[in-house]
């Protein structure tokens, strides 16, 4: 005996199909494309930057590969940029990069080869740290910076800790 309140099966199938269609149409606005950076993911970058970061990867054959992660806040932006280049003479290339630090370098022990960190140029309007190092013939440069005045997340002490962590992750993924 059929109940009067039950919808016929054909009508339920149409309703289900319409709901499924609406979900599929709405999905592109809800789904965020995955970052293609081979050395660091958005979740790790977000932790280093202190908030939800969006990543971008640019890699062209014969050119250095660059991953850039940005996290926007009212009043400024935090940025983590990773550049990887394959060098024919990695030791010389790394030495040239390190010269931009002057005498203000700090060794990053147990990270790749010859890795160092230094502060960004204090004349810039951003507070930041850089790390340079190499793994075999791959030379990496990492820049972590903030344009927020008095940034509570990326202060000088936090920058030193976080640039070390970023360098550790990148060098580990280059092996």
Helical content band: 25-40%
User: Low-confidence segments, ≥5 residues, pLDDT <50?
Assistant: 19-33
- Cα-based radius of gyration, to the nearest Å: 24 Å
Question: How many independent structural domains?
Answer: 1
Instruction: State the helix count.
Output: 4
CATH class: Alpha Beta
**Shape, principal axes of CA atoms:** globular
What does this structure look like?
- With 175 residues, the protein is α+β, with helices and mostly antiparallel strands.
- The chain has a single domain, classed as Protein Transport Mog1p, Chain A (3-Layer(aba) Sandwich).
- 34% of the residues lie in helices and 30% in strands.
- It has four helices and seven strands.
- It has helices at residues 9-30, 42-49, 90-99, 156-174; strands at 54-58, 65-73, 76-86, 106-107, 113-119, 127-135, 138-146.
- Strands 1-2-3-7-6-5-4 form a seven-stranded antiparallel beta sheet.
- A hairpin with a 2-residue loop joins strand 6 and strand 7.
- The longest helix has 22 residues, at 9-30.
- It is globular, with a radius of gyration of 24 Å.
- The termini are far apart.
Main traits of this protein?
175 residues; seven-stranded antiparallel sheet; Protein Transport Mog1p, Chain A; alpha+beta
Secondary-structure map:
Layout: H1 9-30, H2 42-49, E1 54-58, E2 65-73, E3 76-86, H3 90-99, E4 106-107, E5 113-119, E6 127-135, E7 138-146, H4 156-174
Antiparallel strand pairs: 1-2, 2-3, 3-7, 4-5, 5-6, 6-7
At a glance:
This protein is an alpha+beta fold.
């Amino acid at each position: 005996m059929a109940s009067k309140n039950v919808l016929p099966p054909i009508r339920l199938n149409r309703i289900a199909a319409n709901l499924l269609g609406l979900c599929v149409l709405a999905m592109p606005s809800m789904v965020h494309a995955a970052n293609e950076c081979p050395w660091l993911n958005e979740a790790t970058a977000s932790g280093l930057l202190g908030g939800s970061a969006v990543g971008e990867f640019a890699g062209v054959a014969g050119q250095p590969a660059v991953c850039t992660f940005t996290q926007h806040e009212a009043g400024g932006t935090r940025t983590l940029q990773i550049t990887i280049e394959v060098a024919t003479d990695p030791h010389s290339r790394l030495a040239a990069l390190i010269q931009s630090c002057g005498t203000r370098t700090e060794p990053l022990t147990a990270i790749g080869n010859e890795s160092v960190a230094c502060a960004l140029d204090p004349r810039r309007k951003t507070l930041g740290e850089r790390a340079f190092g190499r793994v075999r013939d791959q030379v990496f440069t990492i820049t972590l910076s903030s344009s927020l005045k008095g940034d509570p997340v990326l202060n000088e002490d936090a920058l030193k800790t976080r640039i070390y962590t970023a360098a550790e992750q990148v060098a580990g993924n280059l092996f």
